[in-house]
Each structure stands twice: as structure tokens, then as C-alpha cells.
Amino acid sequence: MTRQIITVATTGAFPTKEHNPNIPLTPKEIAADVHECWQAGAGIAHLHMRDAEGRGTMDKDRFAETVALIRERCDIVLNLTTSGDLNATDETRMAHLIALEPELASYDCGSMNWMHTTLFINHPSFLEALGRTMGAHGVRPEIEVFDAGMFYNAQHYMKKGVIPSPGYFQFVLGAAGGIAATVENLVFLKGLLPADAKWSAFGIGAAHLPILYATIALGGNVRVGMEDNVFYAKGRLAKSNAEFVERAARLIREAGNAVATPAEVREILDLRR
Predict the structure, then answer these.
(1) Of 104, 130, 188, 271, which alpha carbon lies 20 to 30 A from 79's?
(2) Which cofactor does it need (predicted)?
(3) No. of helices (H) and no. of strands (E), the chain
(4) Helix, strand, coil percentages for the chain (3-state, nearest 5)
């Protein structure tokens, strides 16, 4: 039976309580939310931090507090962002990885126009330093791909030995400035992968469900959560991130597959220290 991983992206850097009052923002809120999602079937939690004003931050102390609170509750695999603040320095984007050595962290494999308003910069020198820092601290890169060029960037860094091959890819569809969230584009991106690569995908906003359905059908892993979409259905705000996880788990089982536990996630993604 195919085991499919559910990643929950609880918070992100941009949605606020004004978008959805149920989004978790503080370390205590995020930890409680992650625990509920673990109970519902999430095997990975992708974490962003917010400062006291609710803005995205790469403050390593916020990460440390949140990780400690989660570890008191459950064994979910933790995936820490490296891009939670567009104004962060290269050093602050890596400091929490050095301090906490999570099992996974995001590796955004290229630069792009962001939301048609600003730039999301991942300079080649930063990507090389990030990959080598991850390797030195036992952190597996989750290679985030916002368009096809980022896949080929990843291939370059694999050939150089900066990040491991064949890789674990997260296809991000529907970000303004990146590839559109269509099933055709998802199939195209999947077709680029080496046969032994692991992959996951999600669609942003209204594209969430079509990409969720298609990813499950194609045998991939899925990501859900309020970082990407604050609505559970058209016109109805999500009550919790666990609600998204419960739906994903139900769909995976109805497709005849199994929801991967954290222990199985570690085996599937080879997260051995």
C-alpha cells in the first residue's frame, strides 16, 4: 500500500488574524495547532515564526521556543522555513538551522518576483552556503520549486554536491510570480523528476483542492494548511489546520492508500542522522 505524507503548513509569513481568526501565530498557538494536526494524521509540520506584532520573522529564539513546545507533545517531523522574512539576512536565514538542527528545512531553489510587488531573493551564493550548512548539520533540504527553472537549479547544486541527490521536492503552484496552479502544470513538473526522487505538491488559494486531488491520484505527498489557504471551502473560513489535515487523510484513505506516520516519514525520506 502506498504511504502518502501529509505536511501541514500552519502559519506562513503573511496571513493574519484578519484573514482568518483561527490561524496560529504565537509559539503556544502553533505548538497546540501542530499537536492537533499530528493527531489528525500530519507527518510533517512546516513552521514559520511571527514576531510580537504578527510579522514574519527568522528569530531563532522563537523557533527554539516553538520546537521545544512541540517536542513536549509529539514526534511529528519538523520542517523549518528558511524564508520567513523577505528582509532577513543570509545569516539569520540559517542561524536557527545551526542552533536546532531540524530534520528538514526549506530550500527555495531560485529567485523570483514575489506577489507582483517585491523580490524573493535566493542568490546563488546563499543557496550554496545554505546547502552546505544543511549538510553539516544533518538537515535534509525540502527543495521548493515555484517554477520549472528552480528544478534545474536544484539539479545544478546536486551535481556540485551542495545538496543530496535525488532530492525531496515540494512543488508550489499558484504563487503570484510563479507557475500557475493547474493540473497540467503539476503533471509537467512531476515529469521532470528522476524516477527515485520524492515529491509533494500544493496549490495556493482556490487552487488548493484541484492540486490536492491530483497529487493524491498521481501518488505524491501533499501539503495543506493556512499558510497556503485560509478557506476550507468557497466562502467558509477554515476552523483549524487540523480540519485540512483530516480532509487530506480521508482522501488518501479513500484512494486506497495509507497516511504516513512520522516514523514512516523518516523512513520514506531517509531522515537518519
Answers:
(1) 188
(2) Zn(2+)
(3) 9, 16
(4) 40, 20, 40
Contacts 24+ apart (CB under 8 A), 19-28: 19/230, 20/226, 20/230, 20/231, 20/237, 20/238, 21/237, 22/226, 22/237, 22/238, 22/239, 22/240, 23/226, 23/230, 24/241, 25/50, 25/54, 26/50, 27/62, 27/65, 27/66, 27/69, 28/69
What is the reported pLDDT for 273?
52
Residue whose C-alpha cell is 534545474: 152
The span from the CA of 13 to the CA of 218, in Å, is 29
Global pTM reads 0.97
Residues of the chain with pLDDT under 50: none
The 10s digit of each residue's pLDDT in 9-53 is: 999 999 999 999 999 999 999 999 999 999 999 999 999 999 999
Determine which helix (DSSP H) or strand (DSSP E) holds 9, and give its type and residue range.
strand 6-9
Q: How far apart are CA 38 and CA 6, in angstroms?
A: 10
User: At 88, which amino acid appears?
Assistant: A
Q: How far is CA 156 from CA 21, 138, 150, 269, in A?
A: 42, 21, 10, 21
DSSP string, 22-91: T---SHHHHHHHHHHHHHHT-SEEEE-EE-TTS-EE--HHHHHHHHHHHHTT---EEEE-S-S-TT--TT
Q: What angle do CA 115, 120, 123 make, to 5 degrees?
A: 160
Per-residue pLDDT tens digits for 247-268: 999 999 999 999 999 999 999 9
